[in-house]
Design goal:
The structure is a single chain. Helices cover 34% and strands 23% of the residues. It has a 6-stranded antiparallel barrel. It has a 4-stranded parallel beta sheet with strand order 2-1-5-6, with helices on both faces. The C terminus is likely disordered. Bound molecules: zinc ion (3 copies).
């Protein structure tokens, strides 16, 4: 019997379907060894030797693997085809004491019969470079986390954490917030003429006295009014017509980063959700490996795409030559493929009974994107008209879709504007001339999508790390999302970031973090020694840390109040904890009385009609709303209540995203947010 070991039970189930009785497939249920939780686990006096332990939850799986391994002739390690997968395979090999004679490593980028058969025909040995790159990442992260966090406990607040990539990411959000605070909107005006000849259309003022207007050139209403007065009586005449065909090309196929961005924008999935669902699709054999930064499509995939497009849409939608996309970031030996369906002709509605709703949506997105990337571009007829009026030039642009191309399967937003067929010199009738006031806008706060994009652009994340980073910065209480799902730093986020910026500038430096990520890539490629990288990082880091323990004084963040402690009568102070402010007795540690600060929403508790509904946080940092009289009244809900009752069942109404809905689960009452248009009852499916 040959034993194949993978890291997940679903994956093992899918693989065993392809193989005969000669093979047994078992799962390790994730990591079988890791650094210990309760200590550093890295021997600083012995070349950063990691002390790995078998976590309690892995013991059962390890025993099973050991028993099965005894009976096996050959043990084949089939964990995921990236550094983390390689490291898991290595840990398994270490525990089972495997050697080159009795074990093999196989890699595949999709869980299909042909891919598994191919992989079994081409086994290799474990790749030490990939393993070391993963170990180096684990140890670097451990050193920063376990050394710097206690510093924050001592100097700021207990329970805080610092992290190698985490802290830079929080800094991005803090910096953005400061830019927004500093931002001063500037006023500017635009001028539009509604003109008529055969049909009405709008044209925008672009030139005055032969000088092209830039955005902020018309600054005040007075300036705009003067232009309007000058042009009221002018003659409007076509001075130039330009026609051309414009092509719009499809986006490249998905990488981890672009999949997370698109799923956030189109499906409102968090990065974490996207990864969980993509993993399910991968393990079910439906898509290629979902942790990748490669844009490469295999030859078989290109052929399958070509055939599918031809039979489904016809030759005019096909390409004569495949469109090849160049991968920006290259990690040798991690030569992955882009994320695509394993079977191009597995259309979403044909396999939908196998999938739940969210899996279906994500699969649909991946399927469409992969097909679109090998389809003909969309073609537009574009017209631009220039209209002369006195010494001014107005411009109107029209765009008509001539051929939909890839848009047939991957619709994207575009606007069609039709302009009348006119000739040079024709005089137009002025219907209306008007000005519009605008203000420049501050940079936007990050969404999950734009944050992933930024991390990738700066080179401070990798396909396996985007989603965990984004979860961590929220769970640790450094950032939260506003009601538009955009990141804002918390108070403690500002304080810790400023402290790190001042005292550990490298830890929050984008360039330094990106440089370390590159070093890890080099280790994976065998071009860099991992111990050298650890040493180069650790020595200056520890020296600086020792110095800062001496230098930096504990931050006193307490704010005095008039409130007296109900237990001992001492004054209460406002303290800042991991998850915000609370009242604490100033006689601490003699008196340990604390009280939450009631963040009232101004809504009366519907259950006891005495308390106020207050905004609170769970231990994990998730926001919820509950009665201020807790524990006497236990009323609580996840969504923010508004001070209004449901017209249908009289329960309290809550805000959910952009909607106002009834908090009663059995009631379907909904309103659009802002305008209180009732959309009526929506049937549950
Ligand atoms: Zn007290
Ligand atoms: Zn109550
Ligand atoms: Zn209701």
């Amino acid at each position: 019997m040959n034993l194949i070991i993978v890291e997940s039970p679903t994956k093992s189930k899918t693989i065993s379907k392809f193989l005969d009785k000669e093979y047994k497939v078992l799962s390790s249920y994730g990591h079988v060894r890791d650094l210990p939780k309760n200590q550093l686990g890295v021997d600083l006096d012995d070349n950063f030797k990691p002390k790995y332990v078998i976590p309690t939850k892995a013991r059962k799986a390890v025993k099973e693997l050991k028993d099965a391994a005894k009976k096996a002739k050959l043990i084949i390690l089939g964990t995921d085809s990236d550094r983390e997968g390689e490291a898991i395979a290595w840990h398994i090999a270490q525990i089972l004491k495997l050697d080159k004679e009795n074990s093999q490593r196989i890699v595949f980028h999709e869980i299909t019969k042909s891919a598994i058969e191919q992989a079994l025909k081409n086994p290799r040995q474990l790749d030490t470079n990939l393993i070391n790159a993963q170990q180096a990442r684990r140890i670097l992260d451990r050193l920063v986390g376990y050394k710097l966090s206690p510093f924050l406990w001592k100097k700021v607040v207990k329970g805080l954490s610092a992290g190698r990539v985490q802290s830079v990411t929080v800094k991005l959000i803090v910096d953005r917030e400061r830019e927004i605070e500093k931002f001063k909107p500037e006023e500017y005006w635009t001028i539009v003429a509604s003109l008529f000849k055969k049909q009405e259309f709008d044209a925008k003022l672009i030139k005055i006295d032969n000088k092209r207007l830039s955005k902020l050139d018309i600054k005040t209403k007075q300036e705009a009014d003067k232009i309007l007065t000058d042009l009221k009586q002018a003659q409007y005449k076509i001075s130039d017509i330009k026609k051309k065909e414009v092509q719009k090309y499809p986006s490249p196929p998905f990488t981890t980063s672009t999949l997370q961005q698109d799923a956030a924008r189109k499906l409102y999935f968090s990065a974490k959700q996207t990864m969980v669902i993509a993993q399910q699709l991968y393990e079910a054999g439906l898509i290629t490996y979902h942790r990748t930064d490669s844009l490469n499509l295999s030859d078989q995939a290109l052929i399958a795409l070509h055939q599918f497009i031809k039979s489904k849409f016809g030759s005019e939608y096909n390409l004569t030559q495949p469109r090849i996309y160049k991968t920006k970031s290259k990690g040798a030996q991690e030569a992955h493929e882009t994320i695509r369906p394993t079977q191009i002709d597995a259309q979403p509605d044909q396999i939908k009974q196998r999938l739940d709703q969210r899996q279906r949506k994500l699969y649909d997105l991946i399927w469409r994107r992969a097909i679109a990337c090998q389809m003909a571009p969309a073609r537009f007829d574009s017209t631009s008209l220039e209209i002369e009026a006195n010494t001014c030039i107005f411009k109107a642009t029209g765009q008509i879709l001539k051929f939909d191309g890839f848009l047939k399967i991957y619709p994207t937003k575009f606007q069609e504007v039709e302009l009348p067929l006119l000739t040079k010199g024709e005089v137009l009738k002025l219907i209306k001339l008007f000005s519009e006031q605008h203000f420049t806008k501050p940079p936007a706060r990050y969404t999950e999508a734009s944050l992933v994009k930024t991390l990738e652009e700066y080179g401070i994340g990798r396909p396996s790390t985007y989603a965990p980073i984004i979860s961590t910065i929220q769970e640790r209480g450094y950032t939260e999302k506003n009601d538009q799902k955009r990141f804002i730093p918390t108070e403690i986020g500002f304080i810790v970031t400023d402290l790190l910026k001042e005292n550990f500038p490298k830890i929050v430096d984008i360039k330094f973090t990106a440089y370390l990520e590159k070093d890890l890539d080099k280790i994976a490629q065998g071009r860099q020694n991992w111990l050298a990288i650890l040493k180069e990082f650790y020595q200056p880091f520890q020296e600086n840390l020792d110095k800062k323990y001496e230098e930096v004084k504990k931050k006193n963040l307490d704010q005095p109040t008039d409130k007296k402690c109900p237990k001992c009568g001492s004054p209460m102070v406002i303290k800042l904890g991991r998850f915000g402010k609370f009242y604490a007795c100033s006689a601490f540690p003699d008196c340990r009385h604390t009280e939450p600060i009631i963040n009232s929403t101004g809504t009366t508790c519907p259950e006891c009609n005495q308390g106020q509904i207050a905004k609170r946080r769970t231990k994990k940092g998730k926001i919820f709303y509950s009665c201020s009289r807790y524990p006497k009244c236990k009323y609580a809900l996840w969504d923010e209540p508004i001070n209004e009752k449901c017209p249908e069942c009289n329960s309290i109404l809550v805000k959910k995203g952009n909607q106002i809905k009834c908090s009663n689960k059995e009631c379907n009452y909904k309103q659009s947010h802002g305008n209180k248009r009732v959309s009526g009852k929506i049937k549950k499916d």
